[in-house]
Design brief:
Elements: E1 2-5, H1 10-21, E2 27-30, H2 31-34, H3 38-48, H4 50-53, H5 59-63, H6 66-70, H7 75-84, E3 93-96, E4 99-103, H8 107-114
Parallel strand pairs: 1-2
Antiparallel strand pairs: 1-3, 3-4
Helix pairs in contact: 3-7
């Protein structure tokens, strides 16, 4: 199982703390240091939708100008943005055996998934 995110993100920190407290083993992939491939983003988009992957509530999205935001109207544009600015990907994303099993952090959802 791999947790994808950014180490200094508060939501990711809470998720990792929860996983550690519940003795769930995982590998961690930091977008900031390791990047993310367009092919991985396409696979996730197929599973959960590109609209779900783009974190429109985060600082990175809010820092885009209106023109940049308006250009994100399809999967190709979203993947280009997420590849260039991985901080705009909703996080954490947890993948197991190639399948997205969680996106974001919700303690009750984690309890269901990892019990």
């Amino acid at each position: 199982m791999t947790v994808f995110g950014i180490k200094n993100c508060n939501t990711v920190k809470r998720a990792l703390e929860w996983l550690g407290a519940h003795k769930v083993s995982y590998d961690f992939h930091d977008y900031k240091t390791k990047g993310i491939t367009a092919s991985k983003l396409k696979e996730w988009s197929r599973q959960v939708g590109w609209e779900t992957l783009v974190n429109r509530k985060g600082t990175t999205w809010r820092q885009l100008d209106d023109r940049q935001k308006a250009q994100i109207t399809n999967q190709g544009a979203a993947i280009k943005l997420m590849t260039e600015k991985p901080s705009v990907i909703k996080r954490p994303l947890i993948e197991k055996d190639g399948k997205v099993i969680a996106l974001g952090f919700d303690e009750s959802e984690y309890a269901k998934i990892f019990s």
